[in-house]
Specification:
heterodimer, A: about 900 residues, alpha+beta, 4 domains, 6-stranded mixed beta barrel, 26 helices, 23 strands, globular, B: about 110 residues, mainly alpha, Arc Repressor Mutant, subunit A, two-stranded antiparallel ribbon, 2 strands
């Protein structure tokens, strides 16, 4: 058999992995694996099946050798590794101070990393508790003009997509909704019957199959239960509801609960782990989509293609790629666009995974900020590594004689390096464990910082197994990063010099260079981290000073929703004005108003296109859609938002009166040139909607996000729109007992309808807790990182300066004997330290200058090159560095030349 | 874990050797276990003296211009342990023995 030389990549892992097999078995081990792989390759070649696929398979097989090699580690009990570990533990106990400082530095570094990752994990990465969560795809709908679309689907469009696509094995639709859930016959005024507000979902019958979850009890929905509107009042409840209200009784199936006053028959119970379609919200019930009218949807919801209510989840057929599926759905969408040009013209579909679909263009910032936090945390870890590396260097210098002795009696240099690396591994593992505890505590702090919200949020920031794995890998990597260079240097000890009696002084120049490089690196990194911190803190100050266009002073808010009790629209329109009048009669109330949503909360209402009177309708999906809000009379008074022109809505602006609207300055400027010009003008939305007269111009404010630019905004009268859930705003006459005022309002509501639940009481600044949370968390985390960075850099600089002074004691003694003054010595030492600091300072400022551009969009009102931050951080660092140099320098001046020279 | 207790993986590996599959890779093929599972199992079995390993004669290997392979045999102790394990894992007896001298991998 003539053989031509060929590459055998499957043999590479064997020689590579073999390194960790205990030495005395290595040859045998390698030979066995190589022989087996060789034999298999020969056999495959004989059957002409040695193609790339089987080659790859061979490589995979050979990777299994790793586990084999790992298992063989148990043979090392009497082998070198365990000697190393035992010895390492002894050495650590002999130098408790060094061990404590090193472990602490590593714990801080690993801890902040792990805490940051836990937060990112809880927010962004943790998958839904469904079967194969990564395969769950989420299509979005929108205009072709946009690069990426994030819109929802109308039910009619969903049905067409579901039936006409060729790439999805199944596609379901869902819509979250809130509901007042009660367990007895509604209608009684008994206080104990007060409904509980929970979140649920309107879903298609295939929903649970697509999600891949099985009910704990009972069943999911049948296809026939989702065919006729309101015909099948069935419900699947969550395990929490089952436990709390039915005592986990298995006979719950067939019982009735009341949601929004509507009796529903329980057919199934979902397990605790399944929270629903939205990863952050705990849902309590699921009903067929056909029940939508009972949850406040207009009867046309099913057929109206412009009423985009539903989001979709689907799973692909085997072997289909996401790109193919997207093309396929877009073909269906194009066909729908031709059939229904008015609603579907010019639209397209994007498909993302469920995880990628969590953050749309507006909230991508959260994701972005999370990863930025991780990057900064990594910098802090690097800083800790540099610090410990420096400590290790100092330590191996102190151990020069020990190492030289070991070398002299025959230890190999590899063995010495391994010994030192084992010690750093032990250190980093200890640091990892302490860091884990720190991260656990840190994630608690982050969790506690989350503002109170009237929703059942399920975000869990505590570290899980995924985070644990990351922590372990980080610890191992860390030990190599900080341990390798000192270990390699230590093993190069100049034997003869040491034995001759100059311990630790050998190759001094070289070692000094690495040490100062490490100090420069520390200063550089800490400057970058500090500047990030400074920018975020400045940005937070700016946020707190920004005028959001309303004032929360003396303001109390709470949420009610009469529709949860089955009120129809007429009853609601009677209920609201009556409620406001009653509240305003109460002592201490300055003004009361209702709004669909408070500004800067999660809501995102919009209407459009804007069609000015006398202008033609724009082509479908092309007009300007404006953000808007629905508000009651006295809203602007209660929010303390100035009206520049015109009037507030009144009780007379109801469904029977001519349609009116209040717009903001930016709206008036964009569409009519000026506020004065806009007053009295009329516009409407899509054809068929009434023309609305502009009766007031409100001062510009912030509506959706603190970071937004000025944007057109409309206020529509609540009494002219179909609405159920509102926020009640009470503006008190003066600061006082807000809780008493809130309780009065609560009682007034109870007097009108005792069953009506009141949730989400917020007082004054609490109304801003959600929008301020992001900037606060960013500033808090960034300044924690900053303080840690400064601390680590200071300790690093200090320890190096101490070391230098010790090394130069002899030289200083000579200098002083020759007539150097104290000032000369001081200057000598301080200038040596500050030289390193200055190099680090320049590098750090340059680095920060380049890096901060990346997160400009996360900063508010602060440029990424904010001079105050840059100068401030530089000055702070120089002052602290000066202190860190001065203390060792003063020690140098106390050198007694006599003692220093005695040994000569 | 008791030293002599056979896990299912180990019992399966032992049974495969008993059936005449003497090489690590053959065992993987016939049992369907991954390489990262079979080898540690073999090491444990060898540790417990249930199997003994031998190197192929150098002359055979040299004739075929390849490194000699290591093959495993069940010891007496191993046979007893296997008999005990077969009581617990009934499916073991369904593992088929080597029919011919041809390597079992042809089923691959």
């Amino acid at each position: 058999m003539s053989k031509k030389p060929q590459t055998r990549p499957w043999l590479w892992p064997i020689s590579f992995i073999g390194v960790i097999v205990p030495g005395r078995m290595r040859a045998d081990w390698r030979q066995e694996w190589e022989a087996e792989l060789h034999h298999r390759a020969v056999l495959l070649a004989e059957w002409d099946r040695l193609n790339w696929r089987t080659k790859l398979n061979l490589v995979r097989l050979s990777a299994g050798a790793f586990w084999d090699a790992l298992w063989m580690q148990t043979y090392r009990w009497e082998d070198a590794m365990f000697q190393d570990i035992r010895y390492g533990i002894r050495m650590m106990r002999k130098a408790p101070g060094f061990t404590a400082v090193a472990v602490l530095a590593l714990a801080l570094g690993i801890g902040v990393n792990t805490a940051a990752l836990s937060a990112v994990n809880g927010m962004v990465l943790r998958p839904l508790a469904v079967a194969n969560p990564t395969e769950l795809l989420s299509p979005f709908w929108g205009s072709q003009k946009d690069a990426r679309v994030w819109g929802e689907f109308s039910y009619a469009n969903y049905l067409d997509l579901r039936d006409q696509n060729k790439t999805f094995s199944d596609l379901c639709a869902w819509r979250e909704t809130s509901g007042g859930i009660s367990f007895g016959e509604s209608g009684s005024a008994d206080d104990s019957q007060r409904a509980e507000v929970v979140w649920g979902e309107l879903v298609t019958s295939n929903y649970f199959d697509v999600m891949g979850v099985k009910p704990l009890l009972g069943r999911g929905f049948l296809p026939e239960e989702n065919l006729t509107p309101s015909a099948n009042p069935v419900v699947v409840i969550s395990q929490a509801i089952w436990q709390q209200h039915f005592n986990s009784d298995a006979s719950v199936l067939g019982k009735t609960i009341y949601v929004n006053g509507q009796p529903l028959t329980i057919i199934g119970v979902m397990p605790e782990s399944f929270v629903g379609s939205l990863y952050f919200l705990r849902h309590s019930f699921w009903v067929p989509a056909m029940m939508a009218e009972k949850f406040g949807r207009r009867p046309e919801w099913k057929t109206d293609r412009s009423s985009a209510l539903f989001r979709l989840y689907g799973r692909l057929k085997p072997g289909v790629t996401m790109a193919q599926a997207e093309t396929d759905l877009n073909q269906v969408a194009a066909a729908l666009g031709q059939l229904y040009p008015k609603e579907n013209g010019g639209t397209k579909i994007n498909i993302t995974t469920e995880i990628d679909g969590r953050f749309d263009a507006a909230t991508a910032m959260i994701q972005y900020g999370g990863f930025l936090a991780l990057c900064v945390a990594c910098l802090v870890l690097l800083l800790a590594c540099a610090n410990v590396a420096n400590l290790m260097l100092a330590r191996s210098a102190a151990r020069g004689r020990e190492i030289a002795t070991r070398l002299a009696i025959g230890a190999g240099r590899v063995r010495i390096v391994r010994q030192l690396l084992t010690e750093s591994l032990l250190l980093s593992l200890l640091g990892g464990i302490a860091g884990w505890a720190l991260a656990y505590w840190g994630s608690r702090v982050i969790q506690a910082s989350f503002p109170p919200v009237p929703y059942p949020i399920t975000l869990d920031f505590s570290p899980d197994r995924y985070v644990f794995k990351w922590m372990l890998i980080t610890s191992l990597l860390t030990s190599v990063i900080f341990g390798l260079a000192p270990a390699l240097l230590a093993a190069r000890t100049d034997l003869i010099a040491v034995i001759k009696g100059a311990p630790g002084q050998t190759r001094k120049r070289r070692r000094w260079n690495l040490r100062s490089a490490l100090v420069v690196a520390q200063v550089t990194i800490s400057i970058v981290v500090l500047i990030c911190a400074g920018l975020f803190v400045r940005s937070l100050r700016q946020v707190l000073q920004t005028d959001p266009g309303f004032d929360t002073k003396n303001m109390i808010t709470m949420m009610i929703n009469p529709r949860l009790l089955g009120y129809d629209q007429k009853a609601i329109w009677r209920f609201f004005p009556e409620l406001l009048h009653r509240i305003e009669m109460q002592p201490g109330v300055r003004a009361a108003a209702l709004t669909d949503e408070l500004p800067l909360q999660a809501g995102d209402l919009s209407r459009g296109p804007i069609v000015k009177e006398g202008e033609a309708d724009p082509p479908s999906n092309q007009g300007y859609i404006s953000k808007c809000n629905y508000v009651s009379p006295k809203y602007f008074d209660a929010m303390r938002t100035p009206l520049l022109l015109g009037r507030e809505f009144t009780d007379h602006d109801d469904a029977d009166a001519p349609a009116v609207v209040i717009v903001n300055q930016e709206f008036a400027r964009r569409f009519y040139g000026s506020a004065a010009n806009a007053m009295g003008k009329r516009f409407r939305f899509e054809p068929g909607t009434p023309f609305m007269e502009i009766v007031g111009i409100a001062k510009d404010g912030l509506y959706r996000s603190l970071y937004e630019d000025k944007r057109p905004y409309m206020f529509l009268p609540l009494y002219q729109q179909s609405h159920g859930g509102v926020t009640l705003i009470i503006s008190a006459q003066s600061a006082g007992d807000f809780h008493a005022l809130a309780e009065n309002a609560r009682q007034e509501i109870a007097r009108m309808d005792a069953r009506l639940p009141v949730v989400g009481l917020m007082i004054e600044d609490q109304n801003l807790a959600i929008p301020y949370w992001g900037p606060r968390l960013a500033a808090g985390m960034a300044s924690t990182f900053g303080v840690l960075a400064l601390l680590l850099a200071t300790v690093g600089l200090y320890s190096v300066m101490m070391y230098i002074v010790t090394q130069r004691t002899h030289e200083i003694g000579i200098r002083m004997a020759l007539g150097a003054t104290l000032r000369d010595v001081l200057r000598l030492i301080v200038s040596q330290g500050m030289r390193m600091v200055m190099i680090g300072l320049i590098l750090g400022l340059t680095g920060a200058f380049a890096l901060t551009r990346v997160f400009g969009s996360l900063l508010l009102g602060v440029g990424t090159t904010d001079p105050l931050t840059f100068v401030g951080v530089a000055v702070l660092l120089v002052v602290i560095a000066l202190l860190a140099c001065l203390v060792p320098a003063r020690r140098a001046t106390r050198v007694d030349p006599l003692i220093a020279l005695r040994y000569e | 874990m008791r030293k002599n207790y056979l896990s299912y993986t180990m019992a399966l590996t032992l049974q495969a050797i008993e059936n005449g599959y003497g090489y690590g890779f053959d065992i993987m093929t016939v049992t369907g276990l991954a390489s990262g599972t079979v080898y540690p199992a073999l090491r444990r079995l060898e540790n417990a003296d249930f199997v003994a390993s031998k190197w192929e004669r150098q002359s055979i290997a040299q004739a075929e211009q390849r490194p000699p392979r290591k093959y495993y045999e069940v010891t007496k102790l191993g046979r007893a342990a296997l008999a005990e394990a077969r009581q617990r894992f009934r499916l073991l007896s369904q593992l088929e023995p080597v029919a011919t001298n041809k390597p079992a991998k042809q089923k691959n």
